[in-house]
Amino acid sequence: MKITIIYGNQRKGSTYNSVQLLKEELNRNGTIEYSEVFLPADLPEFCRGCFDCILKGEEHCPDKKQIQSVIAKMLSADGVILASPVYALDVSAPMKNLLDHLCYLWLAHRPDNQFFTKTGFVLSTSAGKGTKRTNRTLKLTLDYLGFKRVYSYGVNVAASDWSGISEKKKTKIKADLTKKAAKFYKATINRENLRFRPKTRGIFLMMKNLIKTYDDDNLDKNYWLKQGWLNGNSPYKKEVISEEK
Ligand SMILES: Cc1cc2nc3c(=O)[nH]c(=O)nc-3n(C[C@H](O)[C@H](O)[C@H](O)COP(=O)(O)O)c2cc1C
After folding, report:
1. CA 162 to centroid of ligand 1, rounded, Å
2. What is the position in ligand 1's atom list of the atom closest to the CA of 90?
3. Per residue in 47-74, pLDDT tens?
4. 133 with 89: CB under 8 angstroms?
5. For residue 85, how far is the Cα from the chain centroid?
6. What pLDDT, on the 0 to 100 scale, is given for residue 199?
7. Which CATH architecture has domain 2-194?
8. Please, what is the Cα angle at 35 between 191 and 62, to 5 degrees?
9. What span, in angstroms and rounded, lies between the C-alpha atoms of 59 and 228?
10. Is 164 in the pocket of ligand 1 (CB under 6 A)?
């Protein structure tokens, strides 16, 4: 199994170490090959809001080299982990920058159907408050990319670094992640056979009805036509063999 991990910060603090615990637990379930992305190092430029990716094509993004390299790592994996510290009650700025760069791939534009059978895991750490909102922000992107399942874990560590966290808290994080890792692993290994979520299908259908009405020279409309999604060819046709327990 291949898993790509994207860190919203570069310091090896509480977020990084929590992910290492998650990795340890995942490794107890099976053999996993990891690929890691560190932000902002691997995507240093902020989205300029030029709309070029959305209106002209992703090859026109001024940061195409970096963002396409991150996307390639996401596409080559079975599962993707997004991890961020909580800053101002939400994701870190480098992580938000990645989410902005991914917007052209949302179901509202030109989603890559390879994401439709992938699983995601979002993880955040805060001193005392904000993991719920942060995980919601992270999960929203994976939902709108069409991921099949997304799991989440947030922890208030009451510390500014991993070394400041009590042993009791670390034991609790490890125990929580043991359970979460087992669920994530099971879904990822069985990802092709899991039922598509009604929510994702609903967004897809809503977008299909909207995109149908676009002008014929619209890039998104032409992409959807090319996929056959406006001509009765649904990515959700191949259905349910078994459901996760
Ligand atoms: C700029 C900045 C903003 C922060 N904002 C919050 C916050 O809104 N809520 C909170 O509980 N902790 C906040 N924190 C604390 C971190 O979220 C927390 O210590 C986290 O575990 C740090 O992760 P790291 O060790 O991976 O860097 C903030 C820290 C920094 C540096």
Report:
1. 12
2. 8
3. 999 999 999 999 999 999 999 999 999 9
4. yes
5. 15
6. 92
7. 3-Layer(aba) Sandwich (3.40)
8. 105
9. 22
10. no
Mean pLDDT of the chain, nearest integer: 95
If you measure from the C-alpha of residue 13 to the centroid of ligand 1, how many angstroms do you get, rounded to a whole number?
A: 10
Instruction: Pick from 126, 138, 157 the residue to mutate for probing ligand 1's pocket: most ligand atoms within 8 Å of its CB.
Output: 126
Residue 130 alpha carbon to ligand 1 centre in Å: 9
Tell whether the model's pLDDT for residue 219 goes beyond 80: yes
Residue 235 in tokens: 């990515």
How far, in Å, from the CA of 77 to the mean position of ligand 1?
29
CA of 167 to the centre of ligand 1 (A): 19
| C-alpha to C-alpha distance for 44 and 70, rounded to whole angstroms | 12
Look up residue 242 and give its two tokens. 């078994």
**Two tokens, residue 54:** 């959305």
Rounded CA gap, 78 and 68, in Å? 17
Tell which atom from ligand 1 comes closest to the C-alpha of 160. Answer: 19
